[in-house]
Amino acid sequence: QQPVQSPQAVILREGEDAVINCSSSKALYSVHWYRQKHGEAPIFLMILLKGGEQKGHDKISASFNEKKQQSSLYLTASQLSYSGTYFCGTEINGQGAQKLVFGQGTRLTINP
Amino acid sequence: DAGVIQSPRHEVTEMGQEVTLRCKPISGHNSLFWYRQTMMRGLELLIYFNNNVPIDDSGMPEDRFSAKMPNASFSTLKIQPSEPRDSAVYFCASSFMLRDREIYEQYFGPGTRLTVT
Lengths: 112, 117
Description:
Number of strands of chain A: 11
Radius of gyration of chain B: 14 Å
Largest sheet of chain B: 7 strands, mixed
Oligomer: heterodimer
Shape of chain B: globular
Helix content of chain A: under 10%
Mean pLDDT of chain B: 93
Structural class of chain A: mainly beta
Strand content of chain B: over 45%
Low-confidence stretches of chain A: none
Radius of gyration of chain A: 13 Å
Largest interface: A-B, 25 and 26 residues
């Protein structure tokens, strides 16, 4: 089952914060976050495995709730380079290792 | 270090023709994935291999699609015959899986943009 991402699109000014959500109707084994710029391949950002986990690097971080049905990606003090479409890829328990189902994506536009 | 290599980068073909997409995974990776991306359906997993063996092909749309991985450094995705609805960007990705249920990031190739007229 495809996870639901929200919002579908967001426009920010440089320096503002953004939150992108990824929700599933079933408990997840893992959540993978990717960013894709127009015409390019998706680039890996991070993986979350444990309920209640939070991780991040630089100004991009993510969380995975205790029930493992929702993950959020946080972008703080956004930079122009953060523009792109963000995807969550989810693995449902028992579906097989590494078989990811991706959300529809959230298009993030950062303006100067 | 070279990333995932895909060829061709662009392919334009007529309906009914055979199309073969190629992928060379990152050296040392033992899992390979074929994805298709369209505006309507997003990014979909078609098939994935582990140690050259197809593990799950439930995403392959129909019998017109086939994929092979004859060795650890090469895979093909073939569409025969092609149809206009097959137009999409096809990505190949690879990762390294040490044990089942271990989770490793997937590295995507640049993609092949396929247009079937």
